[in-house]
Amino acid sequence: MKALRDVFGDTLVSLGSTNPNVVVLDADLANSTKADKFAKMYPARFLQMGIAEQNCVGVAVGLASLGFVPWLSSFTVFFTHRAIDPIRMLVAQTHANVKIGAAYAGLMTGLTGKTHQDVQDLAIMRAMPDMMVLAPADAIEGEAIIRWATEYEGPVYLRLARDASPNVFDETYHFAPGKTISLREGSDVLLISTGPQSVRCLKAAEMLQDQGISAGVLHLPSIKPVNKEEIVSASEKVKWVITVEEHSIYAGLGGLVAEVLSELSPRRVIRFGMEDRWGESAPNDYLLDLFQMSPARLSERIIKLIR
Amino acid sequence: MSSRTDDYQELEALARKGRWLAISTVAGSGAGHVGGPFSAMDIMVALYFRVMKIRPEEPKWPERDRFILSKGHSSIGQYAVMALRGFLPIEELKTFDKGGSRLQGHPDVTRLPGLETSTGSLGQGLSVGLGIALGARMRGQKFQTFVMIGDGELQEGMIWEALHIAPRYKLGNLTAILDWNGLQQFGWVLAINEQHRGDRRDPWTGIDLRGIFEKLGWRCIEINGHDFSQIVPALESVKASGDSDQPTMIIAHTVKGKGVHFTEGKHEWHSKVATKEELKIVAEELGIAEAAV
């Protein structure tokens, strides 16, 4: 179990030693995102861009045109809101080889409140042609995705939670874009999730088992692209399909699953997430309870729903 | 550095052709910009025909000098100059803004070889140029990077982010060229008795832009952006300063719509289609004899 921000910093350091083209551009948050680990090891390839995210994105595009592989370091919200236009025009529309390391994704942003909680990023980035949208669940998957994204030629949006979640994968893990991962099979309910919320769904499924409910968990590390047939076939095995995300229930993961199923296998989809409201500044446990995303609240909500 | 008068006459002739190609292409496609391409034309001709090391037949030549037209709505001006320089057939200009064309309304790097990035949403090109110049320094490459920005788009905050960062990285290999034509699409009304080269208010009236740029750390050169005897030496001076520790800002005083009497200083010609009758006057004023008007 390792905080995903430490995974970010450590993996960049490791990549820095083997790939001289890897550079890191920071919008003055490196000691939060842990890109400072890279800065310490490779100061000449660590480019401080100051508190100016739009320019940071544009500079990365220029560097990428010369064969560098720029990783950006800032908070999710400053990319998908402040710097979205250069991401749209300069990165996505030109298929620039820029990697957006979107740290502090989702609700749990270290007591910063709704100003720093990005609960719209999946909706925004999903709608961006040419953009890969990836969200790892644990440290092992996080490292694998960062390594994969560095090799991949094109824009990547990496949704990276701040804190640690228990490992659900082992060293045999292999990332493939689009692939969905069944973390648990179940016959009554299918919980579909992404990022570390998938791990909390797994815990909820264990609790539900004690109540005689068989819940499966389908993890989507790759929001875009995504293998639609795998979502369909996993959903067809159960009566209840429930999506769970640290995000607005509009147009994010829940929207994705609803779109896929309505076209390919029409059925009811229940979306758990943030119901058209902002978050607030509070400890992680409080927020998970408030938005009913902790394993205990989730399982309670599911029992109430299906009984 | 060459300063032969006849050289400048050659460039002046090319600029007249470029203006003709731009305005006649816009007339042919039924939409497009005129004022901006005309104010930027002389500088782009100097860059493509005299200053930049480029190979039209090998647009991705790694050692090429880079040019980014950040004010991407002046694309037809750049396309016209690139066509004259051999990057694309002049005939292809007729496809401007048409479906499937390499010549999109705003420059699209995924379509037209010879472009360095896409521009159009304003204020973004200087950041890309900054990244290219920074990367060149890191790689030890010697080419120059030129970015043309407009005084209208200078209102975008992102440009100021780049203006602040470039001097920190001591990028003597980066040159911004401000096409200061003093007009934008609509802008502000002129105050009573206010004198100006255009029919609307200059967005930077009374503001010491040079002083601001210099305080931020830019080496500034101020020129008449329609006088090749000032344009060429200013642009060429950058080659000598490429190893220096200061980026250069060429402040080019220009006239929007420059070159034709009825387009000069008129904000309505920001984006306008010339009639057949107007094209005849344009051809005459630009000395385009064989024009198919």
Question: Which terms would index this structure?
Answer:
A: Rossmann fold; Rossmann fold; 2 domains; seven-stranded mixed β-sheet; 13 helices; globular; B: alpha/beta; five-stranded parallel β-sheet; 8 helices; 39% helix
Write the layout of secondary structure elements.
The complex is a heterodimer of chains A (307) and B (293).
Chain A lengths: L3 H15 L3 E5 L3 H4 L2 H6 L4 E3 L4 H13 L3 E7 H7 L1 H9 L6 E5 L17 H6 L5 E3 L4 H13 L4 E4 L21 E4 L4 E5 L3 H14 L4 E5 L2 E3 L3 H8 L4 E9 L4 H12 L5 E5 L9 H7 L4 H12 L1
Parallel strand pairs in A: 1-2, 1-3, 3-4, 4-6, 5-6, 8-9, 8-11, 11-12
Antiparallel strand pairs in A: 5-10, 7-9
Helix pairs in contact in A: 1-8, 4-6, 9-13, 10-11
Chain B lengths: L4 H25 L5 H17 L14 E4 L5 H11 L39 H15 L5 E6 L6 H12 L5 E7 L28 H8 L2 E6 L3 H14 L6 E6 L22 H11 L7
Parallel strand pairs in B: 1-2, 2-3, 3-5, 4-5
How would you portray this structure in words?
The complex is a heterodimer of chains A (307) and B (293). With 307 residues, chain A is α/β, with parallel strands linked by helices. Chain A has helices spanning 4-18, 30-33, 36-41, 53-65, 76-82, 84-92, 121-126, 139-151, 197-210, 228-235, 253-264, 284-290, 295-306, and strands at residues 22-26, 46-48, 69-75, 99-103, 132-134, 156-159, 181-184, 189-193, 215-219, 222-224, 240-248, 270-274. Chain A has a seven-stranded mixed sheet with strand order 2-1-3-4-6-5-10, sandwiched between helices. In chain A, α1 packs parallel to α8 (139-151). In chain A, 56% of the residues are buried. The model of chain A has no long low-confidence stretch (mean pLDDT 97). By secondary structure, chain B is α/β, with parallel strands linked by helices. Chain B has a single domain (5-286), classed as 3-Layer(aba) Sandwich (Rossmann fold), CATH 3.40.50.970. The longest helix of chain B has 25 residues, at 5-29. Chain B is globular, with a radius of gyration of 18 Å.
